[in-house]
Amino acid sequence: YSREKGIESREILYRGLRKFKDLKVYPSEANYLLVEIKNGMTSGEFCEELLKRGVIVRDCKSFEGLEGEYIRVSIGTFEEDRRFLEILREIVS
User: Fold this and answer.
1) How far apart, in whole angstroms, are the C-alpha atoms of residue 24 and residue 70?
2) Residue 60 and residue 35 in contact, taking contact as beta carbons nearer than 8 Å
3) Which of 2, 9, 82, 87 could cross-link 75 (Cys pair, CB 3.0–4.6 Å)?
4) C-alpha closest to that of 41 among 62, 63, 64, 71
């Protein structure tokens, strides 16, 4: 997986995540994005809903200062990014 494709994947996810009013995505230079959940679900509940649909993300509740409503989303292939964003539409507005 080339560096350029990784950067493009991160940008696809960033732009896609910004469209959800119940999520706040933070800019990143890494191979993942930090996302704040603002729809009333805890990070654990949100991760569980994703897992039911075959998606695994990192629950950040064990990270100091990020308890409760943050997840970490890793970049993937363009197809994985597309599918992830589709699945999010089922969970959040």
Assistant:
1) 9
2) no
3) 9
4) 71
Could you tell me if 87 and 55 are in contact, meaning their C-beta atoms sit under 8 angstroms apart? yes
Q: List pLDDT tens digits, range 66-83.
A: 877 999 999 999 999 999
Expressed in angstroms, the distance from the first to the final Cα of the chain is 31
Asked if 47 and 84 count as a contact pair (C-beta separation under 8 A), the reply is: no
Q: pLDDT tens digit string along 11-59?
A: 999 999 999 999 999 999 999 999 999 999 999 999 999 999 999 999 9
Query: Structure tokens of 54?
Result: 């075959």
- How far apart CA 48 and CA 84 sit, in angstroms, is 14
Report the half-sphere exposure of 40 (CA within 13 A, side-chain side). Answer: 3
**What are the structure tokens assigned to 39, written together?**
């729809």
- Return the ∠ at Cα 21 (arms to 70 and 34), rounded to 5°: 25
pTM: predicted TM-score of the whole model, two decimal places: 0.92
